[in-house]
Amino acid sequence: MILPFFVYGTLRPGGTNHGLLLRGRTRHEEPARLRGAVLYEGPGYPYAVEEPGGVVTGELVTALPEEYDGLLAELDRLERYVPGDPRNLYERVARQVVRGADGTAAGAWVYVAAPAVAEGLRERGKLIEGGEWRGARG
């Protein structure tokens, strides 16, 4: 399934991984929100944890068609995501996001905290109030 990516941490414009992985490989980037999730601080990057009532702010990133497969593989490596691996830190899931410009919905890949990570964050993590992470952007 080919979907754009919803990014909310170091992959956002101005973030360290945006320049390394996304610059020059995207067709379109636009503000968006993910409903049904909250953010927790991680070690230099955030984790989205699915939680009813929460909202996470980020960008919807559409890859250039010729870059899509390679970019998907690189993002999976960055997020240490391997389908079905119980050691995953993140899971890549398809979710609906809301575009900031016009409020329309769009399907997107989102990397959310894997179940064991999410459980630990709910118990001991530091919640990022308001769902906006600025760690990579100052």
TrEMBL record:
Which Pfam families does the UniProt record give? GGACT (PF06094)
Q: Which InterPro entries match?
A: AIG2-like_dom, GGCT-like, GGCT-like_sf
**This protein's name:** Gamma-glutamylcyclotransferase family protein
Q: Which organism is it from?
A: Streptomyces edwardsiae
Domain of life here?
A: Bacteria
* Annotated Gamma-glutamylcyclotransferase AIG2-like domain residues: 5-134
Q: Which residues form a coiled coil?
A: none
